[in-house]
Design brief:
The chain has helices at residues 70-83, 103-109, 129-141, 149-168, and strands at residues 9-16, 47-53, 60-65, 90-94, 114-118. By secondary structure, it is α/β, with parallel strands linked by helices. The protein has a single domain (9-19, 42-168), classed as Nucleotidyltransferase, domain 5. It has a five-stranded mixed beta sheet with strand order 3-2-1-4-5, with helices on both faces. Helix 1 runs parallel beside helix 2 (103-109).
């Protein structure tokens, strides 16, 4: 990979699938006492495909869809192309998920400003957006009983919208 030129933009991409289920990460419980953990009877999930700007981590662009696939990824990439009409190249650093390597997506990216760079296998620690997902799981999902899927969607989407508002100011 060549060095970043003036006018180039770098994004980190990843999909997240928060499940509608209670997750307990840790708890302090006195010996001999029991702590009840409320749970739901389902495994519905929210599918969010997003990119985070490497130079301005508050700039997060996302697409929520039924499933994360080549079509939702293409929709996401079109959004970031619209955001950066002046950019020479838009580098998207992503993992090796199948929807990033799809033939339809690769054909659509021919002649585009967007260039995908794939991380080595099994290295989520190199993908900056993974840190956002970890933080959001900690604040939104861990230790919280969420009654229904609509309530689960709200904090994730609100958090991402707040980051977009911060970007504009």
């Amino acid at each position: 990979m060549e060095a970043k030129q003036a006018g180039d933009v770098i994004y980190f991409a990843d999909g997240v699938h928060p499940q509608h289920n209670t997750k307990s990460a840790y708890a302090w419980i006195e010996r001999g006492q029991e702590k009840e953990i409320l749970s739901v009877s389902g495994r519905s999930r929210v599918n969010i495909n997003a990119v985070m700007n490497a130079e301005n981590p508050c700039q997060v662009v996302m697409v929520e869809s039924e499933s994360i696939n080549a079509q939702s990824t293409l929709e996401l990439y079109k959004k970031i192309e619209i955001l950066h009409p002046e950019a020479r190249n838009i580098y998207v650093i992503c993992d090796n998920a199948r929807y990033y390597k799809n033939t339809l997506l690769n054909q659509s990216l021919e002649g585009s400003k967007i260039k995908q760079i794939f991380l080595p296998p099994y290295s989520p620690n190199l993908n900056l957006i993974e840190r956002l997902w970890k933080f959001m799981r900690k604040k939104v999902i861990n230790h919280h009983f969420i009654v229904n899927l609509v309530i689960l969607r709200k904090p994730f989407l609100i958090s991402l919208k707040i980051s977009q508002i911060l970007r504009q100011n």
